[in-house]
Write a structure and sequence with these properties.
The structure is a single chain. This protein is of the alpha/beta class. The protein is 33% helix and 23% strand. It is built from 16 helices and 21 strands. The strands form 5 sheets. Strands 1, 2, 3, 4, 5, 6 and 16 form a 7-stranded mixed beta sheet that branches. Helix 1 packs parallel to helix 9 and helix 3 crosses helix 4.
């Protein structure tokens, strides 16, 4: 007779979502099992995603700045050492890994199983085909992996993904990025700043299609100063010759072109890690793309099984995974019926300049046929950005007619930081005018938000019937 260990909660996947659930549930007294396929938890974000990519971006920006000091009477030259750069990147990973170490979670009372978990039934998990465990409730948080497109000759010629790029020992002289999504463009600019000649091949007519059109166009102009783009094009074939890779692209007009490169980076999207979970054994439904369908309580069609993080196909960001994890602790452990709400979920694209996104874009409001006001300020009109000589960008806040924030978008140096107070205002239903009343130290970058909010009062004071009333009042008051 096989003795099966029983748990209140089994968590499949030790990334941001899974670790949030496991630690939260254990702290409330639940008996928890965490099943992680890798030797150490942390997930893609820690090992091959957010942390290493931002470490690389910071290094690239530093090197780029040092190369552009002639205007200050200084010169800088030399080749970058890619092996040393990635060693520095891995130092960042190692520092954070201490917080995500498997033994730390064991010390919290969590049983950590290292291996690949799959369903035997809606309550049973088998690990590496050997060890069985039972869970009253199960949380799927297995994330995604790079999507490898079926391009002829690609596998034979070789390519890079985010799972490989942080182990490079030499900087490629030339690198072609297939796909113009946020992660791909972030890394493409980083490689350009390190010294590579970078080309991005994108199927659509522009990058960042999910962003406000005005913001998107603004940042694209800046990126085109450093990176070459080929829009409305797709890769049909790759082959190798004399140590080089030849990429054949087909454009919208059916014409073809060949690009010669040293490396190819795939930024063609992600595919969910659901294909090896044997979901049919539990009766869990998936979408055609392999994502796991959930309701607004993050339950699958099997109420005792939840799916959170990238695997459910909503917003593929670590902070969203963490937010979903907190909600799962309340629902799966405490039996509450909290609903997930992405209304106030922001995101940032860490190019230079950065791109900040919150709520509706102007195009979305137009599609919904909603009435709205637009308040925007160029960073060229904000003293701190002028002092920094970083005036590329703008802040754009969209409100309803009463001044409540419907969307906020920005591009500029540090946009992901200086726009934070707008998230607070939207989430807690403050009007844009309230942001104008907040005292901002002079000169700082967040003054861009205050300057944008000031436009609301100018509109109120100088348009409509109010100016006439004020004029009569002043005349009477005198």
């Amino acid at each position: 007779m096989i003795i099966v260990e029983k748990y209140d909660l089994i968590v499949l996947g030790g990334g941001a979502a899974g670790l949030t659930v496991a630690s939260g549930a254990s702290s409330l007294g639940a008996k928890v099992a965490l099943v992680e396929k890798n030797e150490q938890p942390g997930g893609d974000c820690l090992h091959v995603g957010c942390i290493p990519s931002k470490a690389l971006i910071e290094i690239a920006n530093t090197i780029y700045s040092s190369k552009n000091t002639e205007q200050y009477g200084m010169t800088s030259s030399g080749e970058v050492n890619m092996k040393q750069i990635n060693s520095r990147v891995h130092e960042s990973i190692a520092h954070i890994q201490k917080h995500d170490d498997a033994d730390r979670f064991r010390d919290l009372g969590i049983d950590v199983y290292i291996g690949s978990g799959a369903f035997l039934s809606k309550n049973e998990i088998i690990i590496d085909g050997k060890e069985r465990i039972f869970g009253k409730r199960i949380v799927i948080a297995t994330g995604t992996r790079p999507l490898i497109p079926p391009i002829e000759g690609l596998k034979e010629s070789g390519f890079l993904t985010n799972e490989m790029v942080f182990d490079l020992e030499e900087l490629p002289n030339r690198i072609v990025f297939i796909g113009g999504g946020p992660t791909g463009v972030e890394l493409a600019q980083a490689f350009s700043r390190l010294g590579s000649k970078v080309t991005i091949i994108e199927r659509s007519s522009s990058i960042f299609k999910q962003e406000d059109k005005e913001i998107r166009e603004n940042v694209q102009i800046e990126l085109e100063k450093e990176v070459s783009f080929v829009f409305n094009a797709s890769v049909t074939n790759v082959h190798s010759s004399h140590g080089e890779k030849i990429v054949t692209i087909q454009k919208k007009d059916k014409s073809t072109e060949e690009l010669t490169t040293d490396e190819i980076f795939l930024a063609t999207g992600r595919t969910p890690n659901s294909d090896k979970l044997d979901l049919d054994n539990a009766g869990v439904k998936q979408t055609d793309s392999g994502h796991i369908s959930v309701n607004n309580k993050l339950q699958t069609n099997i109420p005792s099984i939840y799916a959170i993080g990238d695997v459910n196909g909503t917003l593929p960001f670590t902070h969203i995974a963490g937010m979903e994890g907190k909600l799962i602790v309340q629902n799966a452990v405490l039996g509450l019926r909290r609903k997930v709400d992405y209304t106030n979920a922001p995101w940032v694209i860490y190019t230079n300049p950065e791109v900040f996104h919150l709520g509706n874009t102007e195009e979305e409001l137009q599609e919904k046929k909603l009435k709205y006001d637009v308040f925007k300020v160029s960073l060229a009109n904000v003293d701190r950005f002028v002092a920094d000589h970083k005036t590329e960008g703008l802040v754009k806040i969209l409100t309803n007619k009463r001044g409540y924030i419907l969307g906020a978008h920005a591009t500029g140096k540090g946009a992901g930081d200086f726009m934070q107070e707008v998230i607070f205002a939207k989430q807690y239903k403050k009007k844009i005018g309230d942001l104008s009343q907040v005292i901002h130290p002079y000169p700082n970058h967040a003054a861009a938000v205050q300057s944008t909010a000031d436009l609301y009062w100018r509109k109120k004071l100088f348009e409509g019937s109010l100016p006439k009333v004020i004029k009569k009042y002043i005349k009477w008051f005198r």
